[in-house]
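Thread: assembly with ligand

MN 10:42: here's the input set. Chains plus the small molecule as SMILES. Want everything predicted jointly, not piecewise.
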Amino acid sequence: MYLWEKQMKEELRHIEDKKQKRHLYSIDFLKNSYVLKDGRRLLNFSSNNYLGLAGDDRLIQASVRAAQQYGAGSTASRLMVGNYSLYEKVESELAKWKGTKAALIFNSGYTANVGIISALVGRHDIVFSDKWNHASIIDGTILSRAEMKRYQHQDLDHLESLLKKAPVHKKKLIVTDSVFSMDGDIAPLKGLVELKEKYGAILMVDEAHSSGIYGERGEGLLHLLGIEQQVDVQMGTFSKALGSFGAYATGKQWIIDYFINKVRSFIFTTALPPAALGSILAAISIVQQETIRRKKLQENSYYFRKKLYEIGFDIGTSETQIVPIMIGSNELTVLFSKKLEEKGIAAVAIRPPTVPEGTARIRFSLMSTFAKEELDWTLEQVAAVGKELGVIS
Ligand SMILES: *Cc1c(COP(=O)(O)O)cnc(C)c1O
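BT 11:07: finished. Tokens for the full assembly:
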């Protein structure tokens, strides 16, 4: 055995010993609220399909039509021959929806963050990043070679103390998730705008879990708070509430021009396939019109949080459709998830390194398509498992 082989296998064993080994299992999609796993139907609390749009016939048909008209693949980067008219249509609809001058599509949220951050800052600059930001933000910062200053989660005072210490002449980027993906809490966005203005920093906000969900027409949290013009880069995805795939950034026209010229994950990659663009276009239109989906999601989320809290679970600081049950031990969390699955509920065990050591949890993500009876039934099962495992008394 080569030395490297021995070392890498040891690493895997180490992950297994810590009860952190991840596995892929296969599922089949059932429309709306359920998945099939090993032939069993599970109520799906583990997707980001918050508004149930991934199974919507109008999105599916729009994908099919776009593929028929433009082909299965986009054949090149958009700067080569991949820039179908569909792209421009989606981008102008997107800018209109978000209330910004311009928009640009990326292949995924991950590649958008990695590419945008490494284009905005370089080795002489500083990135101020919430400690719980998404992995793609961290990876983008590493790739940029900028100095990374992680501030305590949501702590504006800590952020300001770091900003104060930074040399005046250095370019500064403040970056945050709007809704944090493992805790379901909301960033202090207005405070971040104030600090950005006070210290002359760039502000970038990742609306992956709030786009489509907040605001009269689902524009997102920034729009709801009326600060969308003050945030330099609004980024979000089509892969969650919008039920499709891909991501976007919106901002001033010159910023978007800058991205077209500088973001390597935009320049050196094949454009999204026409089918994805077709469903994105349909989703942007539907999400703005069908307010009822947002309302239903808010109702379901509120009800679920309230009941879990009353039953006696620790749901952390959640105030959104992402609701964790804090457990702590990796082993117990995995067992909790397994027991839920036996009862017909898919809810993922989230363990380090995705979350800090000692804070393993079950993460529920709500959908607008759940009926109240389904939630009540779920709450009963969760309470029973919680008691059985001693998580609640
Ligand atoms: C999911 C997510 C991403 C990545 O988006 P993909 O389209 O899945 O690559 C980026 N940022 C945050 C906060 C996310 O939750």
